Amino acid sequence: MLGLICSSSPHRDESLLSFLCRLANLNSLDASEVLNLFWGASDDVVKASAFLKNSPKSWHRELQELRVPVTRSARLLNFRKHKYCPLCLTGMKYWRSEWHLMLGSVCVEHQIHLLDQCVHCRAKVSLNSITNCSCMQCNQSLAFEGLNNLTKGSADEIWFAKLLRRKLNGFSDSSSSIWELKLDDFHEVALRFGFRAAQIEHGGLYLKNAGSLSLAAMVSRYAAAAMRSWPDGFHELLKQIMLKRKAKEHWKISHAFGPIYRDIYIELADPQFDFVRRAFEQFIHENWSGPLAFRNKNLDVGVIQNHRWAPVSDVARKVGVDPSLLIRMADAGEIPSNSLSHASGRVERLVDRLHVEQMAKSLINLQTLNQVSETLAISELRVRQLIKAGLLVAVGGTPKSGECWWFSFDSLAQLTAVQIKPEENESKELFSLKSFTQFVGNSQEFVSLIRAVHAQQIHVSTIAGASVLEMGFWQFEREEIDLWIKQHRLNAKNELSVIEAASILGVKQEVAYALVRLGLLRCETKLVGRRATQWISLSELKRFQKHYCFGSELAQIFQTSPRHLPSILMAEGIFPAAAPTLPDAYCRQYVWQRSAKLKLFLAMKKISIRV
Predict the structure, then answer these.
(1) What's residue 503's pLDDT?
(2) Residue 397 buriedness (CB in 10 A; 0-12 / 13-18 / 19+)
(3) In what order do the strands lie in the sheet with 524-528?
């Protein structure tokens, strides 16, 4: 065997280089001497050597690399820089084939990171170190069991190392899947993915120290993250590249993805890498929000034809709507959009074609302002009031001068989605929404009425045969609407005149002025021109109603006449705050304080008084 006296048999997972170094040790030779014999022998002699007959499957590949090394720096096998697992060497003292893989960085057996230097003196591992598994600098053994000084590999790194060893042992076929790629093809994909994930831009991958352990660890870590959960990890890698390269500044695929785009379509052009292109085109279909032109010969024609993003004019023509409407919808954020700036300075608007096509039916059936007025059976002025209040939302927002208002059926249905009161047999005075202008003329009360209907504060019915969309034919009870208007106007005002306060209290004006004069109803005097006017705040009016009541209210509670009520109360020691019989507190009506004594008397009579 190569003219050597002593021979041996290789271990199941031993590398060819390790075996040659062991032969040198058995024959008391230097490792370089045996290697020179190995390199100097003819191919026929080497192939006829006994040690190749029962050799591991990986030796055929190692034999080629040792005798005729490839010139590429990012090669599959690296016999110039030596990595090892110190825990493996504590058992069987030989070098494993997987340690020579360029992207190998983790021991599968012990799940720790490989080393490329002596654990004692930090010297680099040399060729002669493989011969006796010891450091040539300090003569210490490379075998080491001090786990505290060793680092555990991550889940991605361990997964990657296991897959590398599986492929090194020949467990693969010609299927075009990331899991079943042959070792050379898997190495090529992993190398390029790892380099691109690390933002290494060199297209040819000719790098200094390409076989170093630090580079192998970095590339394998990034590659494993991209390949382990295929294609999600690969898609995440593409997203990071797009973000780093600021794809939206160019909207050109070659600029957005850089070297990995060339990797996918040029360097990995063989059929076994078709699955990479499919995953890339899937990512383009789902995430690329820029345009795609048919002059891009790399992408599949179907990907370009079915691309989601297209110019507004193309999408509008296909759907059958006005392009200005799509632009307005894009400006309002109602449909996804992007802008493409050309070298000439022209800015082209792009919209999501699929999103618009899903809305096609509703867009074709949009109604103008005049049509909405007819559908709702109200005037255009009332429609504009509803728009201003936000109760009716226009598609595309407010139009520019010369453009139309557009409304969808959904917005009309949402506006008129009210609970219709069933018809009752008893006859009540009703009036429609159209005649509401008889009571109010401003838009605020009209809008407030619609909000009250939505909140079910006011009951509404419809004229027989009218659709619920025809809100102009909604009907209201006269008594209920009068009460609502009164309360609404009260809540809307912060200050009331004495006459308005009298109306709300249900008394004559003279009584209200007497309450003001006596200080029971406080007011504020203001000058309006040259005339002094008295104003009562809404909070003050509510305070008076809370602490005082009129004799007519108590007489109704006692079910007696207002004339007999004073004698009943004064017999119990309850005296009025103002009365026609009090010279110092004169008032045309009896006014009683809601005192604790009055409440106690009513409680004894089992009568409750509203506070």
Answers:
(1) 83
(2) middle
(3) 495-497, 531-537, 524-528
CB neighbour list of residue 480: distance below 8 Å, 6 or more residues apart: 458, 459
Output the DSSP codes for 180-225: T--HHHHHHHHHHHHHHHTT---TT---TTTT-HHHHHHHHHHHHH
Alpha carbon of residue 325 to chain centroid: 26
Q: What span, in angstroms and rounded, lies between the C-alpha atoms of 108 and 87?
A: 11
**What are residue 432's DSSP bridge partners?**
475
Give pLDDT tens digits for 303-341: 888 888 888 888 888 888 888 888 888 888 888 888 777
Residue of 65, 58, 10, 267 lying closest to 172 (CA atoms): 58
Q: Which two tokens stand for residue 205?
A: 């991958």
Q: Does 279 score more than 90 pLDDT?
A: yes
DSSP alpha helix (H) spans, 120-182:
127-132, 155-168
Q: Residue 596 is encoded by which pair of tokens?
A: 């604790």
Is a pLDDT exceeding 60 seen at residue 441?
no
pLDDT at position 282: 92
Helix ranges (H only) for 53-101 are 59-67, 86-89
Coil, helix or strand for 177?
A: coil
**pTM to 2 decimals?**
0.65
